Each structure stands twice: as C-alpha cells, then as structure tokens.
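Form 7-S
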Amino acid sequence: MRSFLVRWIVLTIAVGITTWLLPGIHIEGNFGLLVMISAVLGLLMTVLKPLLVLLTCPLVLLTLGLFGIVINTLLLYITAWVFSGSFQIDNFGWALLASVIISLISMGLNQILGEEE
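Output:
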C-alpha cells in the first residue's frame, strides 16, 4: 500500500511540474484535480499500457522500446479526454514532450525514494 501511495504522489508531482513547465499542457483547476488526473493516468498506465505494449510488440521491438513513449502519449491523451475541459493538450508535440518529461521526473523521483519500477 505504501508503494502505491508513493507512486501516486510521485506521478502527481511529475504531472504538476510538467504542466507548470509546458505552455501546451493546461489544467483548469486546483490541486484536487491534479491528484485525480494523476490517479486516472496511473490507472491507465497500470491497466491499459501492458495491453497496448503487447498489441504493438513488433513496433516496440523494432524501435528498441521507443514506441513506449508514443504509448505513454496516447495514455496522456486518453486522460485529457476523460477530463475534457479541465485538462487540455494543445497538440501531439506537447503531449509527446509531456510524456517524456513525466517519465523522466517519475523515474528520477522513484530512484531518489528507492521505489522500483
């Protein structure tokens, strides 16, 4: 349970920093909305990402795993669709950059906190 909460907090921090850094990602709300967005994104990454990786396995292997960034971008778009109006992404480029930044921040914070991916 502790690991789940730590990962959720880390993802919330990563999404918050990313929306602060990138002008193409907008959250129209407060901290509670940020927490809910990170919960939905984390749930999608837990449930849907393995299925998408399995379905796109040839592309993932062909690109040596870099297609995983595109999958993360798709999950970010799905999250924005769930929170349409409150969470907006201007275009694919911002979403791609946001997914890379969220992944890097999450990876760094998980390393600092000693959580394994």
